[in-house]
Amino acid sequence: MGFLIAIGLIVVLILFWIASYNSLIKYRNLVEESWAQIDVQLKRRFDLIPNLVETVKGYAKHEQETLAKVVELRNQITAPGNSRQEQIEANNELSGALRQLFALREAYPDLKASNNFNILQEELSGTENKIAYARQLYNKTVMEYNTKIQSIPTNIVASVHNFTRRDMLEIPAEERENVKVQF
C-alpha cells in the first residue's frame, strides 16, 4: 500500500512539474508576443515618418533642424545591436521630436491646410495610440509572467529552468511632469 502511495505522489509531482513548466513557457511566449506587437507599431511609425518629413519640407523650408532631428532619431532606432531598452529610449526621443514637428503647423498656415499633412498626422496619432496600447499590454503581460516566476511553488520550476524576471516599460521622467496650459 505504501508503495502505491509513493508512486501516486511521484506521478502527482511530475504532473505538477510539467503543468508549471508549460505555464511558464506560455507566459514567456506571451511576453515575447506582446513585445512583437510594440515592434509592429514602431515599424509602422518608422515607415510613416519619411512621408511626413517630405510633406513638411515642402512647406517649412526653414525648419531643417527639426526635420533633421526626426530623421536622425528614426535612423537610430534601427541601428544594429540596440537592446529593447535602447530602442524604447530612442522611440521616446522620437515621440518628442514628432511633437515639435506637429507644433510647426501653427507657424505655417499652408501646412495646416495641407490634406497630405493632416492625413499623415492622423495616421501617426493613431499609431501612437496603438503603441501606447501595445505598451500597456506588454507591461500587463510582464507583470503576470513575473508574478508567476516569483510565486510559490512555480518559482522552484522557474529557478531550475532559468526563467528570469523581465523589466516593464517606463515612461521618461520629463513626460511625468504636469502639463502647463497657458492662455
From TrEMBL:
Subcellular location: Membrane
Keywords for the protein's UniProt record, in alphabetical order: Membrane, Transmembrane, Transmembrane helix
Record-linked Pfam families: LemA
Transmembrane segments: 6-25
Membrane topology: Single-pass membrane protein
Similarity section: Belongs to the LemA family.
This protein's name: LemA family protein
Origin organism lineage: Bacteria, Bacillati, Bacillota, Bacilli, Bacillales
